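Sequence design from tokenized structure. All designs in this work follow the same two-part layout: the structure record, then the generated sequence. An example of the structure record is given first.
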């Protein structure tokens, strides 16, 4: 008996001496510099949600969805958080990328201006000046918004510039409105001026298309199926946890990056993001569970208005998969 106990103790000591299995290092590159929309990734990391799935997560800021998509295609980032229509344009040209989960299933695109200018509906845009950034995703869909609302280009003036010039035009009064995301540019303007911004949302006028989601290299997905499942499981849980406490989720951005913004606008920006997670069809589903119809409609809109090659309509499912998402309750 003593010999048996001694042998068992030796085995236990040997196991104790073995190093713990190292977590998988994963790089997630964002679509842009950090803002409120990104709160779930930072809070998920801070809460240990990724670590619980055996993932050592590194979050990198991006310089636009196109650049992040290129990084994922080149395998310099494992996952990207990008505008899915932008990813589609790269994929149809041969980039080896696919969306493993679509988080924003309602478009955040809008035309916005200071709330005190009382521009509340498309009719109010007449006679005003709108700042745009040529060739960006919103400017490509803008003609569809005009068509849906009965506006003509001749109803208003347009000024063009890069993303910062567009913001400055509204801040300095050179433009009444700009094309922007409800949770992004509106918060930048409020940070700079302290004044509230009112967005006229494209989605309120029948423009139903997806926006941001998680993408990965197709070869990476095939070679790391279990890791992709664990990453999407952790990210789903991170989003669900962040939804329950937006301010704490926003604070996690500042805990990781003290220059990441202001807590009030980071929180407000994230709160504006949450309603975009689901459509009427997915309101009872967990995050990322996009429907085939939503994706098909998005592809069709991108072909007609967003410069996407018409052959994309032949197989919309080539751009995304729900196969790596956690099941309900898991």
């Amino acid at each position: 008996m003593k010999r048996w106990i001694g042998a068992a103790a030796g085995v236990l000591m040997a196991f104790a001496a073995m190093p713990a299995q190292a977590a998988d290092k994963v790089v997630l590159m964002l679509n842009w510099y950090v803002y409120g929309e990104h709160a779930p990734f930072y809070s998920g990391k801070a809460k240990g949600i990724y670590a619980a799935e055996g993932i050592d997560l590194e979050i990198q800021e991006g310089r636009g969805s196109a650049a992040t998509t290129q990084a994922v295609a080149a395998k310099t980032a494992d996952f990207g958080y990008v505008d899915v229509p932008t990813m589609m344009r790269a994929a149809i040209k041969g980039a080896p990328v696919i969306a493993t989960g679509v988080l924003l299933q309602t478009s955040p695109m809008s035309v916005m201006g200071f709330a005190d200018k009382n521009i509340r509906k498309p009719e109010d845009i007449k006679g005003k000046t709108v700042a745009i950034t040529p060739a960006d995703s919103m400017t490509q869909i803008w003609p569809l918004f005009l068509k849906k609302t009965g506006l003509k280009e001749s109803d208003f003036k347009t000024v063009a510039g890069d993303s910062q010039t567009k913001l400055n035009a509204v801040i300095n009064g050179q433009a009444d409105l700009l094309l922007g995301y409800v949770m992004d540019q509106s918060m930048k303007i409020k940070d700079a001026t302290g004044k509230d911004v009112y967005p006229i949302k494209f989605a309120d006028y029948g423009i139903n298309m997806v926006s941001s989601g998680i993408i990965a290299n197709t070869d990476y997905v095939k070679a790391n199926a279990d890791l992709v499942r664990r990453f999407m499981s952790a990210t789903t849980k991170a989003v669900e946890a962040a939804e329950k406490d937006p301010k704490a989720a926003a604070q996690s951005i500042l805990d990781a990056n003290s220059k990441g913004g202001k807590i009030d606008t980071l929180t407000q920006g994230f709160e504006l993001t949450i309603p975009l997670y689901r459509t009427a069809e997915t309101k009872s589903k967990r995050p990322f569970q996009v429907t085939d119809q939503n994706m098909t409609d998005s592809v069709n809109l991108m072909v007609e208005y967003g410069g996407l090659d018409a052959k994309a309509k032949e197989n919309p499912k080539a751009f995304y998969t729900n196969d790596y998402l956690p099941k309900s309750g898991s």
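Residues 14-19 have pLDDT under 50 and may be disordered. We note this feature because it recurs in several other targets discussed in the main text.
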